[in-house]
Design goal:
Helix content: 40-55%
Family: Belongs to the bacterial solute-binding protein 1 family.
CATH architecture of the largest domain: 3-Layer(aba) Sandwich
Largest sheet: 6 strands, mixed
Subcellular location: Cell envelope
Number of domains: 2
Pfam families: SBP_bac_8
Protein name: Sugar ABC transporter substrate-binding protein
CATH superfamily of the largest domain: Periplasmic binding protein-like II
Keywords: Signal, Transport
Strand content: 15-25%
Shape: globular
Amino acid sequence: MNVALQRWLILGLFFGAAYAQRPTEIAFWHTLDSPGREALEKIVGEFNGRQRDYRIAAQYVGDLREGGIKLTSAIRAGNPPQLYYGEISFVSRAVQENLALPLDEYLGNLPTDFYPGLLETGRFRGRTHALPVELHLPVLFYNADQLAARRQSPPQTWEALAAVAEQLTTRAARGFTVVSDIYSFNAVVMSRGGQLVRDGRPNFTDAKVVQSLEYLQSLVRAGSAQSRNIAEAQFALVDFVRTKTFMGIAPVTVWPVLEKRTPIPFRLGVAPLPRTPDGKLPLAGGNLMVLRGASEAQARGVVALWRYWMEPANIAEWVRATYCLPLRRSAQPLLEDFYREDPRRRVAFGGLEQAQTWVQDPEVTLWYGFLEEALERVLKGNANPRQALEEAQRKALAVERR
């Protein structure tokens, strides 16, 4: 064998081996802003550094609505990512539209210490189509200084909340903030024992749904609550920080965002959401979905990332950054110092027994806009709650029949 041929064979073997060791690339779009964004990117970076089979490229694509628009455009253009971090309410729609791959065949045996019901947020019609990572419950945030000054305790019932809101209200500030988005309204409805969806159909005219909207309207009419629509939702947080309002409902994961971005000029209070005996707390948050078009190797890579994410030490670090629920019992001992440093951090975890996935019906994405329009008309325009909800239901049912 001549020298030139020998060199070509060596180079061929070298490049062949290099190609064989090339990791499977996985494009990962997510909608987590800071501080969750940094925590997510840290987990992905560590995963990439600990193995050579997969390389995951994480990219922030805006908030939930922005991310959804970009994903839709990418799907239409034929170049979607292989992995998408989406809100759990999107899972069923993604399955119905044949976008999300089933993952059961890649999961194998899972640890047995996941808290009951949490893995169900990624399942639809008996199959796993998404892997939960950041699940949370709503809480009541309040200005602890203002409540203390009026010798008020955090309200535990909706009647008590109305009374406290009235006590807190002044000429310059309102006691409570009402935001007319579907998540915030659904939190009130579920905590009062109602359901916005029943048997996959809109349930807007149910007595408990109507009563929930009447309750919120009564707070606004009395001057005890500030109403914010979808376009103004970002200002609800500003109102609270600037002491223009003193109480509000939000996911507990807003807490670290609030503390990171804005100096809070008062003692922050965090309490469980008021709830009737038959009420539930809406379980929401983010899942990992493998989108149609991903290869088997890419699907296995996503499951490998999720398994790494779900290691107890990583869950504990993730919870410290995002304040979300720890998905496994084995992570709890690693979080005792975190909870001991600030007992308020246990508030959301304490509601786990009352948690229920807030929505898993694919049709919701088709008609939730009608509901939000009705909420704004009632809370901003003083429309009749029952009539507005009846109209929203008619529109929703009309869309279903098309």
